[in-house]
Amino acid sequence: MPNAATPRAAPANAGEPIVTISGLSKTYKGGFQALKTVDLQIRRGEIFALLGPNGAGKTTLISIICGIVNPTTGRVVADGHDVITDFREARFKIGLVPQELTTDAFESVWDTVSFSRGLFGRSPDPDHVEKVLKQLSLWDKKDNKIMTLSGGMKRRVMIAKALSHEPSILFLDEPTAGVDVELRQDMWDVVRGLQDAGVTIILTTHYIEEAEEMADRVGVISKGELILVEDKTTLMRKMGKKQLKVQLQTPIKAVPKALSKYKLERSDDCEELTYTYDASQEQTGITSLLTDLTSAGMRFKDVSTHQSSLEDIFVSLVRSRR
Question: Could you give the CA distance from residue 201 to residue 194 in angstroms, rounded to a whole number?
């Protein structure tokens, strides 16, 4: 597995669209509109995280791209192939790892991965199966029956099955669902290794820290609408806020009027003041705040800062659409 700390050499065609979604919508029988005119381009070689609450449309979007569900309107092109008019070739380009563990418990790891390759009409290729199993640290488990594996290893087998037919695009639906913290970090290393090998990865996740750790870009979907697509670092810079928390030596009943310009928030126990500021600005106001606090006769015993996380941004975005 490539070292996650080693800078990855981008492929020559990195950055060009590998998945293009145009005017995509889906209305089910009964009138429920699961998707509302989604337009999106996913770049070759990136890790793209799709975030959204339950029922937001994530599964419907992925199902359409993978050819499982037909759209009401719109078009999807996967690595140069229309997913409807050129379904077979488009599906060859896509690997899908569902959230549910559906592997045959009585098959060996080798047999189930080899069988998955055959389902896509690919000719037997033991060398490729061996390469995939080694890449996912499954080689020493190749003869084990699925039923004997741990949950984390079963998840790896699901990824191996999805990679068996040599796709260029891999969808991971909640890849670390039900996996403990240690195994989750291990799975992140696996995903980074797949990206290093040139696979474009689209993941859905409920673990915001997973997207914050892994993704190059983030898309947020809510009520069937793609409300934001942004480079992760740009999103954090544009929408992330910093907070200065000042712990007071003695509680205060109210914030003095002399400090009203700082729009301070007082904690429920009246022992802490929170000042929110834009870290990208040259003048944050912190120095003058601390000076004015002292001038107002307020003594503090501790000062700390907090950077808003991707989770804070996600919650704020979804709430704003309600």
Answer: 8
State the Cα–Cα distance between residues 84 and 89, nearest whole angstrom: 10
Domain assignments of the chain as residue spans, ordered by start? 17-237, 240-309
- pTM reported for the whole predicted model: 0.72
Please say if the pLDDT value at position 92 is more than 70. Answer: yes
CA distance 292 to 286: 10
Average pLDDT, integer, range 97-116: 83
What is the rounded CA–CA span in Å between residue 229 and residue 40?
A: 8
Query: What architecture does CATH give domain 240-309?
Result: 2-Layer Sandwich (3.30)
What number is the average pLDDT over the span 178-207?
A: 81
Buried (b) or exposed (e) across 259-283, using 16+ Cβ within 10 A? beebebebeeeebbbebebeeeeee
Q: Which long-range contacts (CB under 8 A, 24 or more apart) does 313-316 make?
A: 313/235, 313/236, 313/239, 313/240, 314/51, 314/208, 314/220, 316/239
In terms of C-beta distances under 8 Å and separation of at least 24 residues, what long-range contacts does 30-38 make, across chains too? 33/224, 34/60, 34/224, 35/60, 35/61, 35/64, 35/71, 35/224, 36/223, 36/224, 36/225, 37/73, 37/74, 37/225, 38/74, 38/221, 38/225, 38/226
* 17-237 and 240-309 have identical folds: no
- The strand pair at 169-173 and 94-97 is best described as parallel
The highest-level CATH class for domain 17-237 is alpha beta
- Is the four-CA dihedral 232, 233, 239, 240 of positive or negative sign? positive
Is pLDDT above 90 for 81? Answer: yes
Q: For the chain, how far is it from start to end, CA to CA, in angstroms? A: 43
What Rg value do the Cα atoms of the chain yield, rounded?
A: 24
Neighbours of 94 (CB within 10 A): 24
What are the phi and psi torsion angles at 137 (to 5°)? 55, 40
